[in-house]
Write a structure and sequence with these properties.
Blueprint (H helix, E strand, L loop, with lengths): L1 E5 L6 H12 L3 E3 L10 H18 L6 E4 L7 H6 L2 E7 L2 H14 L8 H8 L4 H5 L7 H5 L10 E4 L3 H12 L16 H5 L2 H10 L1 H46 L1
Parallel strand pairs: 1-3, 1-4, 2-3, 4-5
Amino acid sequence: MTLISVHLPKTGGTSFKASLMTHFGERYRDDYGDQALSQPRLERFRAALVAGEAIAERGLDGIECVHGHFLPVKYQRLNARSALTFVTWMREPVARMLSHYDYWRGNYDEKTAAPHHRQFIEEGWTLEQFCLSEQFRNIYTQYLWGFPLERFAFVGITEYYREDMLEFSERFLSTSLQPRYLNAMKHGVSRRIADEVFLEKVRDFHAADMQLYQQALRWRQARFRSNQEQRRSALVRKAVDLEAIARRQKVVD
């Protein structure tokens, strides 16, 4: 199994990356170089498709896990030749926007910042400018261009990071990875100045992402119910087996 992990910004991807690196070691590869959202949309889509052609031609050369900020359509052509497992994480979109704003305000390096981060700092964007900007509208939807959410084998929910991380590692890695918590921020200025009227306005503005997040939540609930039923069935089978063993021992005695 080759894992393709899409790190949607401010959804716990840095913590997830640390766990993946620990598990895969030299079989892990970063893919953070695209800076796709700093490009005009048509250019970013074209760049992802062109890169995808090259990846499909040369393969991954023994790499079993790729993780980073990229459009998953970039690996779609390779998926047609060798089965890949796509995974990602999602966070409630308004909370994600507020966290993104606070992170960018507090973590800026002029030498390494992406063009859109530099613009944000140099122009002194307000929280409203950031949350209601067309450039950052529906970040999930922008990343998932040409790649329906249904193609992901797993969509974790950041608000349930510990539980979903354990489920992911057991299902896909046949182990129990302990969650890591890196790059986490305490509530910043955005939480103090955002009122409910503003937050509702942001929800409406990012309606497409809200729908994707709600879909991911429904899938998580369905998985949870299925897992409960499987555990319940396993316990029943175990009880029946133990009862059968006890009856056989009684007969022998």
